[in-house]
Each structure stands twice: as C-alpha cells, then as structure tokens.
Amino acid sequence: MNIILNHSSMIPIYEQLMEQIRNGIISGELHPGDPLPSVRGLAGQLRISALTVKKSYDRLEQEGFVSTIHGKGTYVSQSSRQLAVEANRQAVERDFSAAIQRARQSGLSDEEILTLIHILLEE
Amino acid sequence: MNIILNHSSMIPIYEQLMEQIRNGIISGELHPGDPLPSVRGLAGQLRISALTVKKSYDRLEQEGFVSTIHGKGTYVSQSSRQLAVEANRQAVERDFSAAIQRARQSGLSDEEILTLIHILLEE
Amino acid sequence: MNIILNHSSMIPIYEQLMEQIRNGIISGELHPGDPLPSVRGLAGQLRISALTVKKSYDRLEQEGFVSTIHGKGTYVSQSSRQLAVEANRQAVERDFSAAIQRARQSGLSDEEILTLIHILLEE
Amino acid sequence: MNIILNHSSMIPIYEQLMEQIRNGIISGELHPGDPLPSVRGLAGQLRISALTVKKSYDRLEQEGFVSTIHGKGTYVSQSSRQLAVEANRQAVERDFSAAIQRARQSGLSDEEILTLIHILLEE
DNA sequence: GTGGTCTAGACCACT
DNA sequence: GTGGTCTAGACCACC
After folding, report:
1. Which nucleotide is closest to B7, CA to C1'?
2. In principle, which of B29, B93, C57, D47 could form an S-S bond with B24, CB 3.0–4.6 Å?
3. In the beta sheet, which residues pair with residue B75?
C-alpha cells in the first residue's frame, strides 16, 4: 500500500491518511482481516508524528473501518468495504454539491456547469 | 447588499465575507467606485468584531478588488469585476477538478460521475 | 499656483498640500505678503474637506511660513522663503539619509549606492 | 537572528519585523527551510502581541518569503532569497527615486544632489 | 466620522 | 507544543 502525503496541502495529514486507507479498502488492496502497518512503523516511514497516525487509526475505528486490538495491532474490519463505499459516495456527493452551489452563487447556469464538467472530464 | 454568515461553518468568517463581497461584484450589485460599508458599521450590523471585517477588507485590497483611503473608507476598485470573474472561474474550476479527482480515485467512471451531476442539478 | 493631489498616495493630503505651498514659496511663485487662497475656496477647488485645508494652513503657520489674520485671510510671511529653503534642505537630507541606511542594511556598498544614484539621475 | 523594534517609530511594528526577516534572508542569516521562531515564542521574546507577529508572518507568506504548516511552524521558502533580493532592490530604488524627485522639486541641481549624497555617505 | 495599529486573552484544530 | 480564528477594547492619524 503506497501512501503519498502532501504537507503543503490545506487538507490535514490525518485526513489524507484516512482517505487513502479507505480507498485501499474500496479498491480491494486491503481486505477484511488484513493488518494495517504499525502506528510507529508507518509514522517512521512517512516521516510524520506517531500521534498523527494514531489519530487516523482512531477515527477509522470510530467509523467502523478498522478495529484495534491492544498490544497486537490494527486490522481491517469485516464490514469495512461496504462502509467505505458508502462513505466515499457521500463524500463525493458532498463535494459536487458544494461545488455546484458555489458555481450557481457566482451566476453560472446549469448548462454552463455541465459544459465545464465535460471539459474537465476530458482533460 | 445582504450578507449572511454561518458562525458554525468551518469556513472562517472573514473568508465568507470576502466571498460574498466578491460575488456582489460579479453579480453587479457592487460597481466600481461604490463604497463598502464602514468597518465598524458592518461589524456592528453583523455582530462580529471590527477586526474580522478589517481582515476581509485587507485581503480584498491585497487581491485588488477594493482600495482603501485612510479616513474616508473602502471602495470597489475599477478593475474589480474582471478580477472577481476570473478569480471565481478559477475557484469553481478548482472545486470541480478536486471533486472529479476524488470521485475517480474512489472508482467512479466518467459516466457515473455525469449521472451524479445530473441528479444533483435537479434537486 | 497649480496644486495637484494624489488621493491614492500614502502621503496624507494635508502634507501634500503643505509641501506644494512650501515649494511655491521657494520657487518664488509665492512672495512674502501674498495671500493664500481662502480655506473654503481652495477646499472647493480641490474637492477636499475644508478641515484638511485648514489643517495645512495651521501647520504652516506653526512652522512660520504663513500667518493668518482672523476674518481676513492667510498670508505668506516675511521670513518664509528662508524658512522654506531650510525646511526643504532638511527634508531632502532626511530622505536620502533614510534611503542610504536602508540600502546599507540590505548589503549594498557605497559604491553600488553611487552607481544607482547616477542611473536614477539620468533617467 | 537579533531583532530590534522601535516602538515610537511611525513604521508599524509588523512592518519592522517583516523588513528585518527579509534582511535576514538576504544576508544569508536565514536559509531556505530554516524555521522561523514560533509566533508565541517571538511575541514573548519581543514583548509584543502574538497577533502582531502573526500579521508579519501572514504577509511574508502572501509575498512568498515563508510558508506555514499548521501545527508545525513557519519556514523560510525555497525561492525566498531571490524574492527578497528583488523586493529589496525595488524598495531601495523607490526610496532613492522619491528622494531625488523631492530634491529636484525643491530646486536642487543634479550636481548638488551628488554632493549631498557624498557628504551623507561619509558621515 | 473614517481607517490603522496594537493588546490580552480566548477557543479550536493540527502535529 | 504549534498555528488559525475571533473578540472587545484601546489609542492614534486622517478627512
């Protein structure tokens, strides 16, 4: 599982990490039962604080994607794929919804929005 | 010019203010030469700190949308509309671009994306 | 006496006015005994507040360049030319002194400063 | 990096701070990648408000000299030196240009200006 | 009246 | 610990 972080992005590192793990689950790269890298190991590899990795794992656990066994490690949950797909669908929908709202507020018509989308999809 | 702020949003108040003033310029509600409300006046009306309004005006000035005359007030710049339209076009494009990238990373096809957009536009 | 104000300059209007009147005295355009325009007349002509013109005249009087006779008007003082020349010499010296200090702080040598001056003088 | 502030100067504290940091970059005392002092730390050391330091850092970031990473700190940008040298060249040139214009308006000849510069440089 | 700066302190998010 | 935002209020300069 290859993880790439953008330190200058406005998106917090712990969110970037969460999203890439979720995407790994959706794409099938991570299966239910698979172990996640150890907190310290991943922190060392990514050159970030272990607390940041821990924060991501904690949130993923709260959301039901993984579960942590004290003293052993963190593992992908059984129901994770279904959850991940659903979470992603909502995130994507929310993003587009916000973008559409902004576009309309600035005076773009639905037709113009569709034209823009087509152009962007073809790039 | 009617301004609505969302105090519980994660978007800073000064950015919400900036965007609504920019939109006012784009929509033609604010013309070059028009005075903006006084810092203290607007702060009182919106029930926020004068410093927050000032921060918005300062950034808008740095971006070239308005210019301030000490002791007189803040005014919409001559070149503001052109700048605002362009800035907005970029922001909207950036938003859609990011949303499309995220949708693809989570496995959606272009066709599925277009279907989603159509649904969201009709809501 | 032709006065030109720059409203977008960082230099206060009352200072711009003062300097141009002082320069008028130095150049011989204004002689001792000559009347200055009335406060209200000049304010109307320049489209600025009468209080701003009054502030300039007041300061010029404090500095000895003009004297005001209540109910009559403001007149160029007898000793004004000598004062104006001296004030200007100090202002110019202060400006150059500050510019030199800044240039040195940023690492320019005296030689480089002189080269720059020569270039600027020839433009 | 030794910073000296003049609280009675007409130049705002945040501008004095900005200029001294820029000069630190030019002189090579601050290198790309170097961390700036923390906002609160520097504020405490200089006995000024943290907001004032923050304002300086914000503007330096907008101008491209530094970049801030949330929760980590503020760092000197890669392209900072080039920017700083150029910004400074412009500032020095602007200062001298304004001083020369003023000197000429008050009747000094180019020769007299050069004599004055030589005297000031030797002080 | 206007904007320009500064303060002291609060609360939150990120590492 | 770090930066990010916001507040309430002060004092000053300019119009």
Report:
1. F6
2. B29
3. B35, B67
